[in-house]
Amino acid sequence: MTGYNQVHQDVTEQLKSWLNLDAIALFNSGYSANQAIVKLLLSKDDLILQDKLNHSSLIEAGLYSKAQMNRFKHNDLSHLTQLLDRYQSIHNKLIISEGVFSMDGDTAPISDLSSIAKSNNAWLMVDDAHGLGVLGDRGKGCVNNAQVDQQEVDIYMATFGKALGVGGAFIAGSTELIDYINNFSKPYIYTTGLPPAMIYCIGEAAKLAEQQQWRRDHLAELISDFKTLCSGFNIPIMDSNTAIQPVLIGSSSQALLISDYLKQQGIWTTAIRPPTVPVNSARLRVTITANHCKSDILLLAQQLKQAIDANNH
C-alpha cells in the first residue's frame, strides 16, 4: 500500500525504455517472481510445459500449481511439439524456458520457441536471469540477442542480482498482465516492496549496463580466452558461449576435491552436484565477469589443469 515510491516509478520507466517493454511489476527476487506468476495464471484445467533444465524456482512452481505439468527434453523442439500435439485440447498452455541455463551456460532457441508458442496458441515465458545486461544490443538480454521482438514473449522475467549486481527482479508483459499481477498476485501485494535505496541502485546499475559496451566486449574476450585455454589444456568444458562456463568433472567427490584445491589457490569455483545436476555430471561452475582480467583467466586455466591432472593420477 505504501511501498511504491517515485523512484520505483522512475526506474520502471527507465527499464521499459531500455528493454522495449510495455509494463513491469517489481519483485523482491527471481524465485518469488517465478513462483508468483505460475501460481497466479494457471488453474487445474491448464497445462505447463517446461524445459527439463529450468531453474528449480520454475519447476517447483509448476509442481505446486494445480495445472498439469510436463517437462520437455532440454532445448528439444521436437519433443515440445509432440507434447503440444498430445494436449491440444487444453485451452490454456504456458511454455517456460530459461534464456541462459544456469548450470549449463547454453542458451534457449527463443525464436523457435516463439514460433511454436504462436502456432499452438500457447503463452511463452522466458526467464532471463543470466542474460539481462550481458547479451543483446546494449545488454537488452536473450530475447533481443535472438533477434526476437520483445512483445513476442508474453511473460519476461529477469533479475537484478546477476549482471546488475544488486537484487530483486521483475516480470514484464502486456499492460493487462501487469495490471492483473497488481490486483491479484498475493506474493506481489503482500510482500514489502523493494527499498527505495535499492531501486535507485538498480537504476544506476542499469545505466552502466546499457551504456558501457566495453564491459560486454571485455567479458566476451575473456570467455573466448578461457575456451581457447581449456581446449589447449584438454579441460572438459561444456558447450557454452556465455559467462557461465561449466567444467565437467563427473564424480561428485572429485568435483569437491578440485573445488577445495582451487579455493586454496584463491579461486572460487563451486562444485555443483546431484540433485542440482544429473548423476555423474558433477561440475565446477565457473562464472567469468567483466571485473576479471586476462591474467585471472590464465591462472584459472592453469590451476584447473593442475588440479584435474592430479586427481586423475
Total domain count: 2
Strand order of the largest sheet: 1-7-6-5-4-2-3
Biggest sheet character: 7 strands, mixed
Radius of gyration: 20 Å
The level of helicity is: 40-55%
Structural class label: alpha/beta
Report low-confidence residues grouped into runs of 5 or more: none
Beta strand count: 10
Question: Could you characterize the architecture of this molecule?
Answer:
This protein is an alpha/beta fold and 313 residues long. The chain folds into two domains: 206 residues, Type I PLP-dependent aspartate aminotransferase-like (Major domain) (Aspartate Aminotransferase, domain 2); 100 residues, Aspartate Aminotransferase, domain 1 (Alpha-Beta Complex), CATH 3.90.1150.10. 45% of the residues lie in helices and 17% in strands. The protein contains twelve helices and ten strands. It has a seven-stranded mixed beta sheet, sandwiched between helices. Strand 2, helix 3 and strand 3 form a beta-alpha-beta unit. Helix 1 packs parallel to helix 9, helix 2 packs parallel to helix 3 and helix 11 packs across helix 12. The longest helix is centred in the last third of the chain and has 21 residues. It is globular and about 60 Å long. The chain starts with 5 loop residues before the first helix and ends with a helix. The mean pLDDT is 96.
